[in-house]
Every structure is written in structure tokens, then in C-alpha cells.
Design goal:
Na+/H+ antiporter like fold, 3 domains, 10-stranded mixed beta sheet, 28 helices, 10 strands
């Protein structure tokens, strides 16, 4: 046994990494049976293998490096997963929770630290800042249950930046009080530096991101670029005197619109973080907790109990008052409490700064009791946070409302027609944006080969493989089909019937001769042969760099049987890309669209404009910028919403929108019963039209 102990702690990098991977692999599996969240399991595993447990590993530089990456990852993912349109609507609620999460812990904390524990005012304020801060440790639980865009989650995440920013300002002020030569200009200069850096991140980083994504589509290059921006923002924030977590959080906010939830890049970011960096950080947190010191000194026990009680109570009160003020459900309060309760990042920074401050009498501002109490505070709050979040998230995930727009009893399979290698990536990416995120809705890619064209078949197989890889990167299974047919139209129409598909997505015809029509012979014949919804798309810039979507819908479009399907698709696209909608149509149609989206709980940022200039769209073209997209909702001849001006739309599209991303939607032409379907979808009797 003595010989065996000489091998510990392990110092060989290979075996260190092996042990960590073993913990990441087996700890969640073992603790899952005990219904203990994997996050708590990682922290407990860190205690066991760390220097205050079995001492299998030292908390060396690898844990500091990977731990810091994991910490930034948590803050970055939290802001990246936010629905900015929802946050914009509930910014008052998020700000309220953030202010309450800061003010209540500070008030109660100062009173308890000074009155019960007997610490000075300065130490009491800095200790109270530890209660006010919180790290979104339990956020991966929200991601796992797929509720990251619930209102309570957005409130909690939005309130995080308020509470943590104020906490870090307290840290900067108290820390600056003990620096030599600090004058009033120090505080002025600190505020100026933070404001300037914030403006740089908010205004410059998104422009750099759009420029980069439009020129480079390689998945690895995009991932490295995003991580570089995260650490650049964090590093610059540390240079100006604030904690790097604030910079990582801000970078996530500004890149939010450029990284849609269903994109392959988002899947890569989540996978790497949840598989390696975040668990590394949690294990590292556990390794600094010394349970033995806590139980051998009664002073540490008293300090820890007061700290834990005040921390839990104050965050619960903040969630409780927020719930009562805005009349939220009890489960929403539990989720807000769970998300805002765990301490780690800012708390560690505060306790280390407090311990390093030397008072005139030679003592530390924070003594050993505060250090040990802080470790127990981190452990206790992380456990409570994980359990509370797990419980509330499970309740919300299993209580899906009947009007959930991601659910439908109809077959929602979408077929992507591929025939051009250059349009494979744009078509697959927009298809991913049109479907509900993390749903079971089927996607299928189809390549039709005219008989006896072997070379075209080989090229088509390559296109299907490329499309399958893009979808797989977004964790979406794409069915691929290559079929022979007498002609392309016949192959596509038969495939639509065989798969009972609801949508056909095709690329816009590229004219090679002046005599060719706008849609080409293929597109024209398809509109006659296929009566399901057809979506024609042309990409000039990547879909994730679109900043605004303009939608033109014809008068009486709400009375068509395909109204609900295209309205759902457009709403999902706008939600995925997190951009604003500008909708143009007649007054009644605009009212019907607004009512439909509100009824089905689409939180869209939309403006509605009454529009009658269909014969000449030059005024609309002047409103649009290069990075905006336009969607034309049209109709086949003979349909209720068909109007004569639609015959001139191809000409106007070529004249005014040749350098824009465009989407042309031909809604489906049938339903189970036209009158009943129309009345059910719009709530308006058919006779009223």
C-alpha cells in the first residue's frame, strides 16, 4: 500500500486526463440512479479525487485553464441561448429580478455579517457581494430539457448580467480602496474603460462576425473564430479591471443573432462545452472544497451556516417578489430560484480578493473561517440550485401546452430538392431554420436523375452526402433519396406523394439565357404538378447573417387552407434567426396574421404595414438593406388570394431585389375540408370574405 501511494497524486498528463474523463463519464451514470443531478455529481467527484479527498489529483494548471474555459463557456452559452426578442419584451422583468437579486442579498448580508458574525463594515459588504452574485451552474439542465426559451429562463439569464455587473462593481470598489495612490480619477477612469469596452463589444464584434460568416463556412474555422471572440472579450474585460465572465456574457449576447439554435455551429459549441470544458470546471470547483477543515473548527461551521442561510433566503426572496410582482406561475419562480442560486465564479473571485487584502494590523480582510465557509457556500448552493432547477425544469418540460407551435398532428415532412452543388448548403441551412428546433419533424433530401444520365447520378449522390453531413452537424437526421425518373418534375411530384410531404424546398432557377422565364420550365411545371406548399429560396448571404425579414402577403391569404403552414414556417424562421419582421398586406390579412401568431404563442418582434403598392415595389426596395431578406407569399392561378399583379412579380423581383435573399412561398391548395379548415385556422367564417 505504501508503494502504491507513491504514485499519487498523479502527475502524468496522460493519466490526469484519463481520470478526469473517467469521472465525466461515470459520475453522472452512477448518480443518475440516485436522482442526483450530474452537475452535483461532478462537484462531489472533484471533492473525492481532489487534494482534500483521496488526493488522486492536484488542482494543477490544467484545471485552472480548462476550468476558466468552462466558466466562460457557461456564461457564453447562457447569453447565446437567450431569445433576444423575448428578452427585449421582458427586459423590465429581467431588470427587476437582477436588482432584487443584488439588493436583497446585499441588505440582509451586511446586517448578518456585521450583526451576527461581527465583521467590519468593509468585510461585511464584500462578503454580502458573494451572496448577491450567482453563476448559471445549473443552466445545462435547462438545455437538456429543451426549455431554454421559457420566459422564466429568459428573466433569470437577463437578470444575471444586472446582478453580476453590480456585484463586480462592488468588488472593484472595495478592492480599489486598498490600492496605493487611488484617487477619485481611478473610479472615473474605471467607469469610462468599462463603457468604452462595452460599446466596442456591442457594436464592433457583431460586424466582425457577420463579415466572417459571409466569407467562411467551414465548421471548424467558424468554431475557432467564435471561441477567439469569447476569450478576446473576456480578456479585455479583465484588462479594464472587471471579471472576464462579464465579457464572455456580452460576447454571447452580440453573437446571439448570428448563431441560430438549430445551426450546426450551435450544436458544435454545446457539444464541446458540455462534454469537456464545463465538467472540467465543475470538478475543479469540487477540488478546492475542504470538508475536513469545515468539521474541525466550530467558527467555520457558524460562518458557513450564516452564509448559506442568507444566500439561499435572499435569492428565494428575490424570485418570490419577482413572481408576485409580475404574477408568474409557482413553477416559474422555482426555476428562477434554481438558476440564480448557485455561486461559483464571482464568489471565488471575491473571496480570493478579500483574502489577499492585508489590513494595517497585518491581518487579512477575510480570515480562514470565511475561506472555508465560502467553499461550503459554493457546494451547498450548487446542490440546491441543481436540485431546484431539475425539479422545476422537469415540471415545465412535461407540461407542454396544447397550442405548442412545434407540435402538429399533420405530417410536416419537408423535402429539399438538390440539383446544384452551390445551393446544397444554403438550402439545407434554411430548411433547418424553418423546422421547430429539437423536434421530430422529418427532413428529406432528394436528387432526381433523368434516365441514363450516370454522371448526374454520381454528382447527385455527392450532393446528398454533403447535405447529410450538414444536417448531422446540427444533430438532425436527414433522409436522402436518389431516384430515376422520366423527368425531374415527375420524380419530385411522385416523391412528395410517396413520403406524404407537406413542403417542397427548391432553389431559385438561375437564368442562362434571356429567353428563359423567371422560374424556368422546371419551376413552372412544378407549380402545376405539385399542389402542396412549395418554397423557392435564393441565398445571396448566409441565412444566419440576415438582420431583418420583410414579408409580403396577398389580400385574403388568411382564407386559404395553407395559411397556417406558411405562417408557422415564417414565424419559426424569424425566431431561429432572431431578427425583426416587417409584414405588408391588407388590414384584414395583417390582423389575421397577428392573431394567429399571438394565439400560437410565437414571441415575434413584428411591425405590420398596410401595403397597396403591388404594381410597383420600388418604395419597398428602398426600405431594404443589403443584409435583409424578403419573403413573397403568392398563390396559384384560380386561388382565392390570387390577384393579377402576381403575374408581374417575377419582373419586379428581378428589377428591385436581384441582390437580396429572397423566398417565394406557394401555399398548399387543399385541406381536409376547405370551409372547415379555413374557419378552424382563422376563426373567420368563409362567407365573410
Amino acid at each position: 500500500m505504501a508503494d502504491l501511494m507513491t504514485y499519487f497524486p498523479i502527475t502524468d498528463p496522460t493519466w490526469i486526463f484519463f481520470v478526469v474523463l473517467g469521472v465525466i463519464l461515470f459520475a453522472p451514470m452512477l448518480l443518475e440512479r440516485l436522482r442526483i443531478p450530474s452537475i452535483v455529481g461532478m462537484i462531489l467527484a472533484g471533492i473525492i479525487i481532489g487534494p482534500y479527498g483521496l488526493h488522486l489529483l492536484e488542482r494543477d494548471s490544467s484545471f485552472e485553464l480548462f476550468g476558466k474555459v468552462g466558466l466562460y463557456y457557461i456564461m457564453f452559452l447562457a447569453s447565446l441561448e437567450m431569445n433576444l426578442q423575448d428578452v427585449q419584451k421582458i427586459k423590465g422583468r429581467a431588470g427587476t429580478l437582477g436588482l432584487l437579486s443584488f439588493a436583497i442579498p446585499i441588505t440582509i448580508g451586511v446586517a448578518a455579517n456585521h450583526g451576527i458574525l461581527g465583521y467590519g463594515i468593509t468585510a461585511s459588504v464584500l462578503m454580502a457581494a458573494m451572496y448577491a452574485s450567482h453563476t448559471l451552474i445549473s443552466y445545462p439542465i435547462v438545455l437538456r430539457y429543451g426549455i431554454s426559451r421559457r420566459q422564466s429562463v429568459s428573466i433569470a439569464v437577463g437578470g444575471t448580467i444586472v446582478a453580476d455587473t453590480l456585484t463586480l462593481l462592488v468588488l472593484a470598489v472595495v478592492g480599489g480602496m486598498f490600492k496605493e495612490g487611488v484617487t477619485g480619477l481611478y473610479w472615473v477612469w474605471l467607469v469610462i474603460k468599462v463603457i468604452i469596452l462595452g460599446l466596442i463589444i456591442i457594436f464592433i464584434f457583431p460586424r466582425i462576425g457577420r463579415w466572417f460568416f459571409r466569407r467562411y463556412d467551414d465548421a471548424v474555422v467558424q468554431y475557432i473564430f467564435v471561441m477567439a471572440l469569447v476569450f478576446l472579450g473576456a480578456g479585455l474585460m479583465e484588462i479594464v479591471g472587471m471579471e472576464g465572465i462579464l465579457g464572455a456574457f456580452l460576447v454571447g449576447i452580440v453573437l446571439n443573432r448570428l448563431i441560430p439554435p438549430s445551426s450546426p455551429l450551435m450544436n458544435h459549441i454545446e457539444f464541446v462545452g458540455n462534454a469537456l470544458f464545463i465538467p472540467y470546471f465543475l470538478i475543479g470547483v469540487g477540488m478546492i472544497i475542504n470538508l475536513a477543515a469545515f468539521f474541525t473548527h466550530i467558527g467555520a461551521v457558524i460562518v458557513a451556516l450564516v452564509m448559506i442561510t442568507v444566500a439561499l433566503l435572499s435569492k428565494w426572496l428575490a424570485a418570490f417578489f419577482t413572481q408576485k410582482i409580475f404574477k408568474l406561475e409557482r413553477t416559474e419562480r422555482e426555476l428562477m430560484f434554481g438558476l440564480t442560486n448557485s455561486r461559483a465564479a464571482a464568489t471565488l473571485a471575491i473571496v480570493m480578493v478579500g483574502y489577499q487584502i492585508i489590513l494595517p494590523d497585518g491581518s487579512h480582510l477575510f480570515d480562514e473561517d470565511v475561506m472555508n465557509g465560502t467553499m461550503m457556500l459554493i457546494l451547498a448552493t450548487c446542490i440546491v440550485s441543481s436540485l431546484a432547477t431539475e425539479r422545476a425544469a422537469r415540471k415545465l418540460a412535461t407540461a407542454t401546452p396544447a397550442t405548442d407551435p412545434g407540435k402538429s398532428s399533420d405530417n410536416n415532412t419537408m423535402i429539399i430538392a438538390l440539383s446544384n452543388p452551390e445551393t446544397v448548403a444554403p438550402l439545407v441551412n434554411v430548411a433547418l431554420m424553418l423546422r421547430p428546433p429539437k423536434s421530430d419533424e422529418q427532413l428529406a433530401a432528394l436528387n432526381v436523375v433523368v434516365e441514363n444520365d450516370t454522371a448526374a447520378r454520381e454528382q447527385g449522390v455527392k450532393e446528398l452526402e454533403h447535405a447529410s453531413k450538414i444536417a448531422a452537424a446540427a444533430n438532425v437526421r436527414l433522409q436522402t433519396h436518389s431516384r430515376w425518373a422520366v423527368n425531374v418534375v415527375s420524380g419530385l411530384s411522385h416523391a412528395m406523394k410517396e413520403l406524404d410531404a407537406a413542403d417542397l424546398l427548391i432553389g431559385l432557377h438561375q437564368k442562362t439565357r434571356i429567353s428563359e422565364t423567371f422560374y424556368g420550365k422546371l419551376g413552372t411545371d412544378l407549380l402545376t404538378a405539385v399542389r402542396r406548399q412549395i418554397i423557392i429560396y435564393r441565398a445571396v448571404i448566409p441565412i444566419n447573417t440576415i438582420r431583418r425579414i420583410h414579408v409580403l402577403a396577398p389580400r385574403k391569404a388568411e382564407f386559404e387552407p395553407g395559411f397556417s403552414r406558411w405562417a408557422d414556417r415564417i414565424a419559426r424562421l424569424a425566431t431561429q434567426v432572431s431578427c425583426r419582421l416587417e409584414v405588408y398586406s391588407s388590414r384584414q390579412t395583417l390582423k389575421a396574421m397577428d392573431s394567429y401568431w399571438e394565439k400560437h404563442k410565437y414571441n415575434l418582434s413584428a411591425e405590420f404595414h398596410e401595403f397597396n403598392e403591388w404594381h410597383d415595389m420600388i418604395s419597398l426596395a428602398h426600405r431594404m438593406r443589403q443584409d435583409e431578406m424578403i419573403v413573397f407569399i403568392t398563390a396559384r392561378t384560380g386561388m382565392l388570394s390570387f390577384h393579377n399583379y402576381m403575374n408581374r412579380m417575377p419582373e419586379q423581383i428581378e428589377r428591385y431585389f436581384s441582390a437580396r435573399n429572397i423566398m417565394i412561398v406557394y401555399p398548399e391548395q387543399y385541406g381536409p375540408d376547405l370551409a372547415d379548415a379555413t374557419a378552424q385556422r382563422t376563426g373567420v367564417p368563409v362567407k365573410s370574405c
